[in-house]
Write a structure and sequence with these properties.
single chain; 618 residues; alpha+beta; Thrombin, subunit H; 6-stranded antiparallel barrel; 4-stranded antiparallel beta sheet; 19 strands
């Protein structure tokens, strides 16, 4: 123990030097995003008994660990709030884009175009035999149809963009998962001796921050050493013996578990033959479903799902719960390996594609050969017999597509489709949305008389493969209004080619100046029973108002959530962030400790010099 004083002094010197190094590291990372302040954990080393055997004498100090100052509770709170922020940031942006499409109020929005259409009708009322006024009506009607064509095409483009954003976010989730997996391996390796890989842990937490904005996350570090779990170790031994595995779940499912990481995959919606499947009739082709690597579905309808991914899915697929639903009436074996299903009370009859996926009692079954019978209001489809036999019986109700309780692209497209179908039928045939005759419409344009004394021309039809339908296309059939969409809505080919085919007169009126039908068409604008919302103007204004309310709500939620998330982040920084003033105080303190220890070493050196070299010298 002759040189114990020197040893004690040198241990203080090294302890102060380590603390200074940690302080320097904190200062240099004061502006590093995600960095957590670190502290040197110091303790006294084990004492020794005195030479007399009475009492114990200290042996100095040591740094037994360098820990980061971080609150897991605040981390968890931040991840939770950040997820909600991510969802509403997406919805705010996307709804703002859709608002700009309707462009109301403006000089080029629906109201201006619709007013021009009725101004042109009024012109024909007053000049029924004027080719100039008929041409003006044709141009106004074309402008009206092109307005809906343009808005629908833009909405579908947005849906395609949203589909790409979902693809990007899924790929980002997979990249983050692989990075967390790699960091888990590095951290585990460096912490095997009980040390803490603080900077690597910060990097991992930063990745979870990023992930939490995309999708809702659950994070936990699980102790796996049975001796530690049983309480065999405690205190410093607990730290040295502890073996923890880091686990990350997204939407309740494990994404990363210690050294293991799974991934999400994007699967195009198509059947076994590669044909596109549309969950909503308004959908574009090529939309992705999300699945886990093991093939299980990533449930995009889960009400717990949040984050940017939820925002994009809601905007891409949101139909406000208006997917196809119906009651199964019968299931008859065809004898050719398939079962013919008859479905009554269909909530939608505009399922134009003959194939898709049917959901019955939670089972997904591909169907084909969809047919609608207007006389009985039933739909028949064929499903594979083997697959149908796997479905739990009895089956009462069936669905097609996902019920997404949000007003996204499909919802607004459906609203536009409903308008053009109802409006076209009212003008063409004088019938309302329920198929009842509208008083004063006299059977519509098909019963009106043109300049040549002819009847039977539709006013509005639709384009198929960019070819506009006309009278001759329906000689053996009737115009099916579910075939009309906002995207293909068009003035009839017959009227586009010859404005004389515009019917202004009623049967029995004198030509060429008869204008009874145009008078009826003029009065249609004020029909408050045409739509559930009232007049045609009221219907379209209700869409714009509804969109505005949703956009304002998303904007309000995003603003509120930004403030909440920022408040939690500030709480995290108050604990984990580096305060330069505090670090300067620590630096001075540790500097003084270092100087004092160095001075103590000088003193001990002088004592040993006298004791060894000078005692007994005359």
């Amino acid at each position: 123990m002759s040189f114990l004083g020197l040893h004690i002094s040198s241990s203080g010197l090294f302890t102060a030097r380590t603390a200074l190094d940690v302080t320097a590291h904190n200062i240099s990372n004061a502006n590093t995003t995600g960095y957590s302040r670190q502290v040197a954990e110091q303790r006294a080393t084990n004492p020794l008994p005195t030479a007399t055997g009475k009492g114990m004498i200290g042996t100095g100090s040591e740094v037994y660990g360098i820990n980061q100052i971080r609150s897991f509770y605040l981390d968890t709170k931040y991840w939770s709030e950040n997820t909600i922020l991510g969802e509403y940031s997406v919805k705010k942006t996307q709804l703002s884009l859709i608002e700009s499409l309707f462009n109301e109020p403006s000089d080029s929005g629906f109201n201006v175009i619709f007013n021009s259409f009725y101004d042109a009708i009024n012109g024909v009322v007053n000049n029924a035999d004027s080719g100039e006024h008929r041409s003006a009506l044709m141009q106004a009607a074309v402008s009206l149809t092109e307005y809906f064509n343009t808005v629908a095409q833009s909405l579908k483009k947005y849906q395609r963009d949203l589909n790409f954003e979902i693809k990007t976010k899924v790929e980002e989730i997979n990249v983050i998962a692989r990075k967390i997996q790699s960091l888990n391996k590095q951290i585990y390796k460096y912490e095997m001796d009980g040390s803490k890989a603080n900077d690597l842990r910060d990097e991992r937490a930063k990745l979870v921050d990023q992930l939490s904005k995309i999708v809702n996350v659950e994070v936990e570090e699980i102790e796996v050493n049975p001796d530690v779990l049983s309480g065999k170790y405690s205190g410093v031994e607990y730290r040295d013996k502890s073996e923890k595995h880091f686990r990350v779940k997204i939407n309740g499912q494990i994404l990363v578990d210690h050294f293991y990481a799974t991934e999400l995959r994007l699967v195009p919606r198509e059947n076994a033959a590669g044909d596109a499947l549309l969950y909503n009739p308004e959908d574009i082709e090529g939309l992705y479903d999300i699945k886990w690597a093991n093939g299980l579905d990533f449930d995009i309808t889960d009400p717990n799902l949040q984050g940017e991914l939820k925002g994009y899915i809601d905007m891409r697929d949101g139909n406000n719960g208006q997917n196809f639903k119906g009651t199964l009436n019968s299931a008859v074996n065809t004898g050719t390996g398939s079962v013919l299903l008859t479905i009554s009370n269909p909530s939608r009859t505009d399922l134009l594609r003959g194939n898709g996926i049917l959901v019955a009692n939670g089972y997904k079954v591909e169907y084909s050969n969809l047919k609608y019978d207007a006389a009985t209001n039933t739909i028949t489809i064929e499903v594979d017999e083997t697959r149908w036999n796997e479905v739990k019986k009895p089956v009462t109700n069936v669905e097609i597509g996902n019920s997404i309780d949000y007003k996204g692209i499909p919802y607004y497209l459906n609203r536009l489709n409903e308008f053009v179908r109802t409006f076209a039928r009212a003008i063409n045939e004088g019938k309302d949305r329920m198929g009842q005759d509208i008083e004063g419409m006299f059977g519509g344009h098909v019963n009106g008389v043109n300049l040549n004394g002819e009847k039977g021309y539709y006013f509005f039809t639709y384009k198929e493969n960019n070819i506009v339908k006309g009278k001759d296309d329906f000689t053996t059939d009737v115009l099916r209004y579910e075939m009309i969409t906002a995207e293909n809505f068009s003035l009839s080919k017959d009227l586009l080619e010859n404005v004389s085919n515009i019917a202004a007169a009623l049967d029995g009126q004198g030509l060429p100046s008869g204008n009874g039908f145009m008078e009826a068409l003029k009065a249609l604008r004020n029909n408050t029973h045409l739509f559930r919302e009232g007049t045609a103007d009221s219907y379209m204004n209700s869409i714009v108002s509804e969109l505005g309310i949703n956009a304002k709500q998303a904007n309000m939620f995003e603003e509120t959530q930004t403030n909440i998330t920022l408040a939690v982040e500030n709480q995290r920084l108050a604990i984990s962030g580096v305060n330069i003033n505090e670090e300067m105080v620590s630096m001075i303190q540790f500097q003084q400790m270092y100087n004092a220890a160095a001075r103590m070493i000088s003193v001990m050196d002088a004592i040993y010099d006298v004791t060894i070299n000078r005692m007994g010298v005359s």
